[in-house]
Write a structure and sequence with these properties.
With 342 residues, the protein is of the alpha/beta class. It is built from 11 helices and 11 strands. The strands form 3 sheets. The protein has a 7-stranded mixed β-sheet, with helices on both faces. The chain starts with a strand and ends with a strand. Bound molecules: nicotinamide-adenine-dinucleotide (NAD) and zinc ion.
């Protein structure tokens, strides 16, 4: 068992563990009377059934509620279906949710937890690299609506985050790279040390070498957690985590969500760097270095369908006609810059 970090917020705090034995965690920590394991169909087959059996062996009551995998299911409809199923099975305010899956499951299950019977506790058990380093931490929950991604949601912090790197063994290389995109982001905005580690160890990371994977997950989790501690509700510094995302979100949308999030963010980072170089706040050599790392990870750096400035205005981070761009100033540091779009 290893504690990576305890996130301390103004009204609550919770711990993030890596490679903790999940069953023994639930034996030691009674978060609910019984647990609704929310997952998707893929993760259900791979891990949820096993988890439920392990919990039951330890006399911990659990029930699985699953939906078809994929971003398309991150909707109010799925939320309602799951809530109805939970009511049918007698889940009430004394119970808790286990979000077992990638970011889609985490966001949806977190939103369900924050609204089910006016709110019940939940635990994040991320199974994708992206979810381990990003979406499981920080308490942002939500679903997509026809006007855009994540437009309905809440801040609802989990009781704990349990990262188990064994889950990565069944993940595709494409999904691993998807997570690496976000990890490169952390290096650029906040840690030269992480950035250089990625430069030196990228192949080992993509090959899931234990030592390297553990290092980058721990480092990323700490970076994200420390930013969330400073600005839980994203009124200021937390915006820095949106480096590469202003263009990234628009690129994802234009691709009709065929391009994975981390891939779109990779292109978004290259575009942000170009702006930063034009604004004379980032050296061309640093911009090239970031681009080379993105290439080394097998992630894209260009798109045939570059969004126009007006496409960015549907981003939920806009304020009127102003958009905040996160621009790096050197490797390991970035600033927030408001730009008017007309
Ligand atoms: N809340 C936040 O702060 C935050 C941050 C970043 C991203 N997100 C959200 O996260 C979502 C993307 O997350 P994602 O990339 O994890 O996508 P995902 O949840 O759709 O998972 C990707 C695919 O991998 C499969 N999968 C999951 N774990 C697996 C495993 N261990 N082995 C094999 N297959 C597995 C899933 O079934 C799915 O098909 C988006 O909806 C995004 O908006 C949220
Ligand atoms: Zn992201």
């Amino acid at each position: 068992m290893a504690l990576i970090k305890e996130i301390k917020l103004s009204t609550e705090s919770y711990k993030i563990f890596i490679n903790e034995n999940i069953e023994s965690f639930f034996k030691k920590n009674k978060i609910g009377q019984k647990y609704a394991i929310i997952t998707d169909d893929k993760v259900k087959k791979l891990y949820a059934i096993k988890l439920k059996n392990e919990l039951q062996k330890n006399k911990i009551e659990a029930e699985i509620f699953s939906f078809k995998n994929g971003e398309k299911q991150k909707t109010i409809n799925t939320l309602e279906t799951l809530a109805n199923q939970m009511v049918e099975k007698g889940f009430d305010r004394k119970d808790a949710i286990i979000a077992l899956g990638g970011g889609v499951v985490g966001d949806l299950a977190g939103f369900l937890a924050s609204t089910y019977m006016r709110g019940i506790p939940y635990i994040q058990v991320p199974t994708t690299l992206l979810a381990m380093v990003d979406s499981s931490i920080g308490g942002k929950t939500g679903v997509d609506i026809s006007s855009g991604k994540n437009l309905l949601g809440t801040f609802h912090q989990p009781q704990a985050v349990l990262i188990n790197t064994n889950y990565l063994q069944t993940l595709s290389q494409q999904q691993i790279k998807n997570g690496v995109g976000e990890i490169i982001k952390y290096g650029v905005i906040s840690s030269k040390q992480l950035f250089e580690y990625l430069e030196k160890n990228m192949q080992n990371i993509l090959d899931l070498k234990e030592e390297n994977i553990n290092y980058i997950i721990k480092k990323s989790v700490i970076i994200k957690a420390e930013i969330v501690e400073q600005d839980e509700k994203e009124s200021n510094i937390r915006m820095i985590l949106n480096y590469g995302h202003t263009y990234g979100h628009a690129i994802e949308k234009i691709s009709n969500y065929k391009l994975l999030h981390g891939y779109a963010v990779a292109i978004g980072m290259v575009i942000a760097n170009k702006i930063a170089v034009e604004e004379k706040i980032l050296k061309q050599t640093d911009s090239e270095r970031i681009k080379n790392l993105i290439k080394l990870a097998g992630l894209p750096t260009t798109t045939l369908h570059k969004p126009k400035l007006k496409d960015l205005l549907s981003d939920k981070k806009k304020e009127g006609n102003f958009i905040s761009f996160i621009l790096p100033t050197k490797i390991g540091e970035a600033v927030i810059k408001k730009t008017q779009c007309q």
